[in-house]
Amino acid sequence: MTTCKQLEIRLEDRTPQKWCVSLREDVFKKFLSQGSPMTHKVFGDGSLFSPLLFGKFFDPSDAFPLWEFESDILLSNLRSSGQTTVDWLQTDQDYVLKAELPGVEKNDVQVYVENGKVVEISGQWKQQKESKSSDWRSGHWWEHGYVRRLELPEDADWKNIEAHVKSDMFLEVRIPKNSSDCDISEGNDVRSKNSESV
Q1: Given its phi and psi angles, is residue 44 left (phi above 0), alpha (psi -120 to 50 degrees) or beta?
Q2: Cα-flanking dihedrals φ and ψ of residue 73, to 5°?
Q3: Is 123:110 a contact under the CB 8 Å cutoff?
Q4: How far is CA 56 from CA 43, 65, 88, 125, in A?
Q5: C-beta separation of 32 from 44 below 8 A
Q6: What domains are defined for the chain?
């Protein structure tokens, strides 16, 4: 039996400084194309927006990553686990975004709408293995953050966006379309009010 949990859509991000650096995929691709073989081992051939871009190389939970650093094996496994299948489609009534996020919980995903123009899906994957030792330094944990920002089409009804997590694995975001009849009639009403006030 599949479970479906509705997510809250937030209209303001309570942590506005978390993504303050603007990055572009074309700049990153240019950097990779001019890089050495070591650049490709560290960054891979992945996307700038991959949640595991640097892999274990910059993992703050591992104090000595270079001791066991075998880039070909280690980074390829991490890169493949961080690649998520995302489908974006539209119907006559709405736009639909479907993403596969294995092991995601309802509280791990946040959906924000920024100024009615951008929808941001963000969250964190956390893993903590229980340690039988009472020494807190011997625990094994990791945490990865991810974010996807999508510009909304002009006819998107951002006030009625719905997001659901199904079976603790699939995220579905539905963005209704504004009906063109309503927009045209509202536009005519606005023009007529403006012309009467002149």
Answers
A1: left
A2: -80, -50
A3: yes
A4: 11, 7, 30, 15
A5: no
A6: 23-83 (no CATH), 84-191 (2.60.40.790)
**Host H or E run for residue 195:** helix 180-197
Give the pLDDT confidence of 10-68 residue by residue, as tens digits: 776 666 555 544 456 666 677 677 777 766 666 665 555 555 555 555 555 555 555 55
Predicted confidence (pLDDT) per residue in 77-111, tens digit: 455 445 566 788 889 999 998 888 766 665 678 88
Q: Side chain identity at 147, as an amino acid letter?
A: V
Starting at the earlier edge strand, list the strands of the sheet with 86-90. 4-7, 162-166, 170-176, 94-100, 86-90
CB burial of 111-131 (b: ≥16 within 10 Å; e: otherwise) equals: bbbbeeeebbbbbebeeeeee
Neighbours of 104 (CB within 10 A): 20
CA geometry: angle 134, 139, 145, nearest 5 deg: 145
Least confident range of 25-29, 77-81, 117-121, 162-166: 77-81
Q: Is the dihedral of CA 28, 33, 39, 44 positive or negative?
A: positive
